[in-house]
Amino acid sequence: MCTLEQRGNIFYLTLTGEDEHRLHPDLIVSIRSALAQANSQVVKGSALITTAHGKFFSNGFDLRYAQEAGSAEAAMERLVNMVELFKPLVTDFISLRMPTVAAITGHAAAAGLMLAMCHDYVTMRSDQGVLYMSELDIGMTLPDYFTALIRSKISSAPARRALVLRAMKIKADEAVQMGIVHSDHANGEDAFRAAVHLGEDLAKNRWNGTAYAEIRKSLHPELCVILGISDVPVLPSHL
Question: Which family does it belong to (predicted)?
Answer without folding.
Answer: Belongs to the enoyl-CoA hydratase/isomerase family.
